[in-house]
Here is the input.
Amino acid sequence: MITGKSLNKIYRDRAGKSVHALLDVNFTIGEGEFYVLLGPSGSGKTTTLRTIAGLEHPDDGEISLDGKPVFIGGRICIPAERRPIAMVFQSYALWPHMNVFDNISFPLKHGINRIKSDQVKARVLHSADLLGIVEYLDRPISQLSGGQQQRVALARALALQPRVLLMDEPLSNLDARLRGLLRVELKALTRSIGITTIYVTHDQTEAMVMGDRIAVMQSGRFIQEGSPRDLYERPQKTFVAKFLGDMNFLNGRLKNLHESFVEVSIDQFNLRGLAVAGLSSSQISSKVSFGFRPEDVSLVELFRGSNGLPAVITGKYYTGEALLYQLESAGHVLQVRAPKDQSIEIGSKVFMEIAPSSCLVFQEN
Here is the structure.
């Protein structure tokens, strides 16, 4: 449905220095897919989205929508209004002097996407019904809550019946509870109408809940792409592991490579884990990072397993669904998430047990 090939975009900062907003970006997005661009500020997410929309032009590369080229560096550049897309902005971009009906209908009455006047009302009603805002059609925008305004912005985009829906952090201005409700509704809505969606966010939970696939971006590059589960359970870079969820890291040295696992020496203990791509026998004795998620650790008084370390509890925090412990082990400060009925006192000496299949061994950056 949407492809990008070798996209590059360079800006100049105030000092005249080149900044790579996009660096050899490639992607293929299937029809009806909900595709999330995830990364910190300045990673290139919004620039990628705006190049697809036609609001920014790459310095080179190619973009195709629905099999038709809309940008080929130096030769083809279809303007934004002629691309089969609609975009929802973080700021909503609603006209405050208009009511809800007029905001939704405006692009249907004006410009290149206008339709016959006798079709406008039906299109607006259908779009408003999808978003549950029919009762607000006569209400001024200034009298709506943030969540209601976001629904109006979505209804306006969907009224255009685009082939592709682009969204740039559309829920970031809402409170946490409303954000949680709308992300589920939004995913269900786009799935029900089968629209291809590209969604920008820096919120890892939002990306995990909504995305069919996620592309993690850093410094203008795609670092790793995959399903939420793939990225969470098998990150290929420490950046991805840190950005998508919480992960503990221990410094160690690679001791042995076996067929199904690798062995790492950490503070006179040998721990086993799964090798991330790139580790080889030539790196024996080199420094590595041994990573594991806080929820994959068992805390026990008597260590009977073969994969674990001694630790001391230095903090305990109740989070509602679990207890979050802070521990010191092998010169590192670590976090462990345990069932809330397993209460261990601060200062207690424990052992951390971790299944080798839940541990990842990365080349040290």
About this structure: The chain has a mean pLDDT of 92. Residues 176-193 form the longest helix (18 residues).
